[in-house]
Amino acid sequence: MRQRLLLGIIATLSISTSCSSGDDNDGNWVKRSSYDGRTRSNAVCFVIDDEAYVGTGYDGDDRLADFRKYDGELDSWSASISTGDDGSVTSFPGLVRQSAVAFAAGGKGYVGTGFDGDVTRFDDFYEYDPTDNSWTQIADLPGGARQEAVAFGIGDNGYVGTGYGFLDGDDKNELKDFWKYDTSTGEWSSIGFSGEKLRGGSAFVIDDIGYVCLGKSNGVTVNDLYSFDPDTDSWTRMLDLDDDDVDEDGDILRYYAVAFVIDDKAYVASGTNGSLQRDVWEFDPSGNSGEGDWDEVTSLEDEVASRQYAVGFSINNRGYMTTGNSSGTRLDDLWEFQPNVEEDDDDN
Question: Coil, strand, or helix at residue 83?
Answer without folding.
Answer: coil
